[in-house]
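Hey, quick one: can you model this chain's 3D structure?
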Amino acid sequence: MPPSRRGHLIDLRPLRESPAFARMWIGSTLSGLGGQLTIVTVMLHVFDLTASTFAVAMIAVAGLVPMILAGLYGGMLADAFDRRRVALIAATVSFASTAMLAALTWTGAETIWWLYGLSMVNAAASSVGLATRTAIVPRLIPRELLAAASALNGVSMGMSVMVGPALAGLLVALTGFGWTYTIDVFLMLSMFLGLWTLPKLLPEGTVVRPGLASLVDGWHFLRKSVNIRTQYLLDITAMTFGNPLALFPALGTVLLGGGALTTGLLTASVAAGTFLSSLFSGRIVHYRWHGRGIERAVQAYGGAIALFGIVLLAGVFLPGATEQSPNVPLLIAACVALALSGATDNISSIFRMTMMQAAVPDTMRGRLQGIFVVVVAGGPRLGALYVGALATVGALWFPPLLGGILVIVIATWIARLTPGFRTYDAENPTA
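Sure thing. Here's the predicted structure for all 431 residues.
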């Protein structure tokens, strides 16, 4: 069916045409749900132990260096060995670290340093696993379905982040931290099913063994790839200055009210926007000017984050919220702004992921995906540091308001410096 006759609903052909992709997608969705459950629970756990927004922000910062090293090395592994085996090993490490979180919590032996340490291990393993699984996708489906597959991954992520944080807030409020970690342990088992049934996936083309030569080879390719480099810069700008996640526990306590449930709702709102934009991506995946689409989506993302800051500023003049009694109108407005941010970020992600998978040759795909994971996951961790530091010396509303404005200005400037990026054509992909 030609693009003009397609509806707005998501294209499901990748699931129908590739059973292997469908199994991996289901496994990633269920394990992603558990992963989000644990991420939010660790945030709440640290806040419960310290009552410090900065301590919550430092969870993300602590995982930054391990995540960067693991992402880069994991990408090299994915370009040198069977990608199925690399992904399975990464999943095993994630499973073990989550099981230890549960065991420590049930025995009362958890400390903030254990939470930080195991979060670092999880960040590293997740970095390797995500880079490897993403590099696998183009081997399972044809190029013309890559954008649709990226939209399906948006549905997976949206469902995981939408349900996981809300469920985490509910479980923590009703049963405590131990059960939440335990549920993730069981959900992680689905990842093994999705990966175990994949065929052997050795990289195509010339294989470069992991090491300095492989890293330099990937760096030289990236240095010549203006389009890939530009999308990295745009994404890290958005995630550094426009990621207010570390504020959520404090907002549920002192500004919006509602405690842990508010933390879950705010995080789930971002995912709701991601989910809905993927669900109605039928026309979006056929837009061929991906560079222009990324630029506009990032600018819109900055606008949504600035709107979130304005909502929080209004909360300063409408006091009265408590942990037990939230300010419902403000909470709804904050959730709408965050849903808009999730939708615009996901649209950008669809175009970015498709560009990465279509324009980068298979022999380089693991290394470039490793760098991509570092950018995607490293940006939010820098953003956590930005938000935590600014919130410590100023008001909670200031980091998102200033950050949203900075995202719009910097993204516009970067795109103007690379006019070729704006004319990138998905029908003729070039790195």
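One thing worth noting: The longest helix spans residues 19-50.
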